[in-house]
Amino acid sequence: MAKPQEGRCLTGIEGLDQITGGGFPLGGLVHISGSCGSGKSSLVNEFLLRGAAEGHKAALITTVHSVQKTLDSMSHLEIFDERLIKEKVLRILDVADLLEELSHTGRPIEGNGAMELLSEMEGMIGKQGAKRLAIDSISPLLMEMEAGAARNFIKKLGETVYAKKCTTVVVSDCEEGVGKTYVPCDGLVRLSNIERQGNVLRVLQVLKMQGAAHSRSRYVFDVTSSGMLLTPMLRGGFH
Amino acid sequence: MTPEAAEDARNKLTETGPSVAVAFMINPENYFEVITSLVDTFCRENDLACIYVTASVPAATMINALDSLEIDRKHVKFIDCISYATMQLSGDTDAITYVEGPAMLEYIILRVEYLFRKANKRKTLVIIDSVNAMAMHNDTRMLSEFIQILMSALKGREAYPVLLALGDQLRPEVKEMIGLVSDQVISLGPRPSV
User: Fold this and answer.
1) Which domains does chain A have, with CATH numbers?
2) Residues B141, A197: C-beta atoms closer than 8 Å
3) What is the mean pLDDT of chain B?
4) Of A20, A71, A175, B179, which has the most beta carbons under 10 Å away?
């Protein structure tokens, strides 16, 4: 991986680092939003694996899939190395295990419970020395929280990871074409499935990347065993 | 059949060298002969890998044809853009990678990129077979953008980018487009008698 610019965290995903203007903001909260099957988890897995392969400790908090299922999907990538898991350079945690630790067990999670969960995450980042964190997906977690608690949780999460210089990616699900997001963030990447003449293309667009002159164009991408590959979406002369 | 067309194709590529986008205008009777000459003889002589993008016939058909001629094809990887349409996917996933259709142009670029990553920096001949077939499924402006981007990427990789076209069967605007996106357009056929 090339050397990052000051204040940036290179994702290691070829093409994405160029599109984002040099990677994600270091210690920033980056929101990956997309519809079902648009490639969100693949992007997150590769972000963590490429960092871990460079020795940047990384953690994934999964709220949707089991740890084993997440691990199995990661293992299809050529860059995956079991030693990263064994040596705890990359940790995968089920959010249920974190929630079990809370003394505030009520649902929906109210303010104190949300802050306690954040404290658990902060402890985990500190203990591991994680420099990359991902929450895949944040949607069910926020849905379990009271409205005010969810907003405060995200705000405090951003502050926490920034203080620890732990670049964090949160994934959220949105309906195709709607793309609403309520997650305040330093970076916003939208993934979508676009139909063109009956063909469906997976498309990535960077809508926000704080502190960077990033591309705003749309890129078609493919998820391969070598990782994510991107190319500009063709416009057929219409610019 | 004109055996000199195949020889001319090899000679022209040798002359131009890598990083030059070459379009060969071929007659139907020379078509397969030129293909085998490039895939087999030219690659062997220059120790090249080959990426063969087919939008005209399924890769499995090409493989059968090469096998029947006992042509070594270990160095050839196919990007098949047509078999999804006929629902006839071959099991040979080592040699063939599929794109859902000839209009999925970005995915052809990405598959080429993927195969380059796998090729371990070996020099590569990339054949697009054929502009005629691609033009049936794509708007000319879209196709010209695709070819220009692909050719530029291939030139940057010091590959040998080759477009194949049945010259007599091209629409005028497609013919004009080939002229714009190629560095050299070469008509292959019988040599003029002296």
Assistant:
1) 23-193 (3.40.50.300)
2) no
3) 92
4) A20
